[in-house]
Amino acid sequence: MNQFPSQLPTGDILEVLPSIFVVAGQMLVGDGAEAMSFSRNMTIVRDRDVLTLINTVRLGDEGLATLDALGTVRNVVRLGAMHGRDDAFYLDRYAAAFWAMPEMDLKRGEKITDPLIEGEPGPCLQSSVFAYETTSKPEAILQIQRHGGVLVACDSLQNFVGPDRFFNPIATEKMRAHGFLRPANVGPGWRRVTEPEPNDFSRLKQLEFKHVLSAHGEPCLDTALDQFSDTFAELFSV
User: What does the alpha-carbon distance between residue 227 and residue 183 come to, in Å, rounded to a whole number?
Assistant: First the structure.
């Protein structure tokens, strides 16, 4: 497993909704004094004894033991074009099915076994795929029809309420200056790179959901539809 990117610090696996778990970890961008350290999240969905990993974050030995105690990893899901650092590690370790949009650019030999298609079922029970239609890079959201509706997002929907323990000072300064550190946000970097149009957010706000679990930021629980609808109105006038 030495051919995979190194394991970075992570927190504990936390159950945020029944049989839905989140674990935060570190991401490093850049080198030397200009390197930025910030957080990213993996969501784990359990269906009986089957586990689905979304927005993967490589765990250390203790975290992997905790993961294996939850069930058996059968699915790995890549939702965003700018993620995927640790997908190959989990695909190799568990011989899991790999779910991603067909247009996704894969760099570590991953092979899509199950494409994510707009409106089609996802890997979890009671799940379906929302795919952005106007962006320059592929990005999807997994909608899970449990607990009043859960959206699992990657870079598009974020919920940084402030810097956490994985942030270093340079990341805090730069990400605050560029509008990342606000709740119920549409990712500023993702917006700049992919240039989404308002119609995608008109479609998105029609989905039934109470919770958003993102690759970046805290879980947004119970009030997610109202909070994100306000953001869509502000940013896209929808």
Answer: 8
CB 209 within 8 A of CB 221: no
Q: What letters, b where the CB count within 10 A reaches 16 and e where it falls short, cover 176-191?
A: eeeebbebbbbbbebb
Residues in Cβ contact with 21 at an 8 Å cutoff, skipping those fewer than 6 apart:
13, 14, 15, 43, 44, 45, 46, 70
**Integer Cα distance of 188 and 185 in angstroms:** 8
Could you give the CA distance from residue 60 to residue 55 in angstroms, rounded to a whole number?
A: 16
The span from the CA of 187 to the CA of 76, in Å, is 23
Calculate the CA 62 to chain-centre distance: 22
Query: pLDDT tens digits for 107-131?
Result: 898 999 999 999 999 999 999 999 9
Q: What is the DSSP letter of 34?
A: G
Alpha carbon distance 145, 204 (integer Å): 15
Q: Which residues contact 64 (CB under 8 A, 6 or more apart)?
A: none
Contact (CB, 8 A) for 228 and 31? no
Q: Structure tokens of 23?
A: 């674990």
Q: Quick one: DSSP state of residue 186?
A: E
Assessment of whether the complete model's pTM goes beyond 0.85:
yes
- φ, ψ for residue 160, nearest 5 deg: -75, 110
- Asked if residues 155 and 141 have their Cβ atoms less than 8 Å apart, the reply is no
Full set of structural domains in the chain with CATH? 14-236 (3.60.15.10)
